[in-house]
Design a protein that fits this description.
Elements lengths: L4 H20 L6 H4 L8 E10 L5 E6 L5 E2 H12 L16 E8 L3 E2 L5 H6 L7 E6 L2 E5 L1 H6 L4 H11 L13 E5 L1 E6 L6 E4 L4
């Protein structure tokens, strides 16, 4: 399902509101924000990313790789989780006004298959595809833009994906690894609290 620009603006504003209230209000009730987009039907796979403006330094990114929750719940939960991304120093209320909020809505996962690592890598289009790996209880997800921003090729991205999942870098070559690609629809603030745009390319 693709969302309209109007819905994208509402989704981003809800994510920002969730971040702000989580950082500033004691006993934040997520339903206060969720109700503003509760009319968006269906479950959705969503990631929320926070970046410092104007440096574009990532301050956190979190979400759901599969459509396990209703859109209104997924957006708010992902936004709150992004402030506590353990890869970064927790987001402070003091920097809230300097953050740009971005929401990525993921397509359904498509299983990557092929004989040999070259065939698997050829199924990945850098700039278009995000990546997801599952191996036992381990999993990790890279958004398309994250892969591009790091300058990785397909095989290097797969190595890093496995490392992020707590696995060895080359585990994606194992028969037990399940690899998936997906695409995203991205809505992003141009400036903190500013207009929202839809990002149509990852390059």
């Amino acid at each position: 399902m693709r969302y309209s620009m109007h819905d994208g603006e509402r989704i981003v504003k809800a994510a920002r509101a969730a971040v702000e209230l989580h950082l500033t209000v004691t006993n934040f009730n997520s339903k206060l924000v969720e109700r503003h987009i509760s009319d968006l039907d269906g479950n959705a796979a969503v990631f929320v990313s926070l970046e410092h403006y104007p440096t574009n330094i990532t301050r956190g990114s979190a979400g759901f790789a599969n459509a396990e929750h209703p859109m209104h719940h997924a957006v708010v939960a992902a936004a709150v989780a992004a402030t506590q991304d353990t890869r970064y120093v927790p987001v402070s209320h003091l920097e809230f006004e300097h953050l740009v909020v971005e929401v990525s809505i993921l397509s359904a996962m498509e299983r990557l298959s092929g004989k040999g690592k070259g065939a698997v890598a050829k199924g990945i289009v850098i700039g278009k595809h995000g990546l997801h790996v599952e191996y036992g209880y381990h999993s990790s997800t890279f958004l398309p833009g994250f892969i591009v921003s790091n300058g990785w090729g397909a095989e290097e991205a797969l190595d890093e994906l496995c490392i992020a999942a707590g696995l060895g870098g080359h585990v994606w070559k194992s028969p037990g690894a399940k690899l998936f690609t997906f695409t995203t629809q991205r809505f992003r603030e141009i400036t903190p609290r500013g207009p929202v745009e839809e990002i149509t390319t990852e390059r």
